[in-house]
Structure formats: C-alpha cells, structure tokens
Amino acid sequence: MTSRLNPYISFDGDARQAMEFYKEVFGGTLTLNTFGEFGQSDTPHSDKIMHGLLETPDGFTLMAADTPPGMQHSPGSNFAVSVSGDDDAALRGYWEKLSGGGSVSVPLEKQMWGDVFGMCTDRFGIPWMVNIGEAQG
C-alpha cells in the first residue's frame, strides 16, 4: 500500500449517518467499525463509530469517527489530516517532522487495533493523525 493523505472528521455521535450520507453522494465502499468491536462493548458509546472509511470510485478517501468519550467535540475544528500506509520508515519520518515544534496528544505507539498510531498538532496549529499498518505480503 502506498501512503495516503486525507481528511479525518470528528462527529458528535452521528458519524454513521454522516458517512452513509457521503456514500450516497460520492458512491464507493464504506467500512464502519464501532467502539464495541474494539473492546468497549459494555459502554454507552459501544455502537458509536470508532473509525469509518469511505473509498470512492473517483479516488476520494474520507475518514471519520464519533468523538470519543472524555474528549470535547468542537464544531469548526473537528477535523484532522490523516497520513496512513505501511511504509514504516517514511511514516515515522513524517511523524517526527510534523510533531517537531508542535504538541503530541497521542504518542506514536501500537494501539488496540494493532497498528502504530499517533496524533499531534504541528507548529502551525494543524492536527495530524499518523497510522502505520502492517505491510501486506
């Protein structure tokens, strides 16, 4: 897989409805994973979207999630730019440069879904998410 760069939008509990709408608009394949699928099945937000991915026939990629419990939903600033792929060295290099001089909210480390993931805000105030998946053999 090559690396990809795309918007990642946070919603206030209606990510499923929004992503289904965007699928109607743009077409494509929609994948939705809930918090419950990743070990949070006994919580009030278990049916909310932990990660959604829409890939369209025109090559658009849109990712989204419901704002996790304990984090504040802030309309107008409810987005991040996502960089993802399986090129560990390249993605770690992007991480180092993006987080340098900025702030790290989630350290770049292995997560419950198996990938290495981190969140930072660069020195210009832009939020970034870096996800490093396993190389496909």
Q: CATH topology, which one? A: 2,3-Dihydroxybiphenyl 1,2-Dioxygenase, domain 1
**Number of DSSP strand runs:** 8
Widest sheet, order of strands: 2-3-4-1-5-8-7-6
CATH architecture heading: Roll
Unreliable stretches, pLDDT < 50, 5 or more residues?
Answer: none
Radius of gyration: 15 Å
Strand content is 35-45%
Please report the first level of CATH classification, the CATH class. Answer: Alpha Beta
Helix content: 10-25%
Which structural class should the secondary elements be placed in?
Answer: alpha+beta
Average pLDDT, rounded to a whole number, is: 89
Task: Kindly report how far apart the N and C termini lie.
Answer: 10 Å
Largest sheet: number of strands, sense, barrel closure: 8 strands, mixed
What is the CATH H-level superfamily?
Answer: 2,3-Dihydroxybiphenyl 1,2-Dioxygenase, domain 1
How do the helices and strands line up, and which of them pair or pack?
Blueprint: E1 4-11, H1 15-26, E2 29-34, E3 49-55, E4 61-66, E5 79-85, H2 88-99, E6 103-110, E7 116-121, E8 127-132
What does this protein look like?
With 137 residues, this protein is an alpha+beta fold. It has a single domain (4-132), classed as 2,3-Dihydroxybiphenyl 1,2-Dioxygenase, domain 1 (Roll). It is built from two helices and eight strands, in the order E-H-E-E-E-E-H-E-E-E. It has helices at residues 15-26, 88-99, and strands spanning 4-11, 29-34, 49-55, 61-66, 79-85, 103-110, 116-121, 127-132. The longest helix has 12 residues, at 15-26. The relative contact order is 0.20. The mean pLDDT is 89.
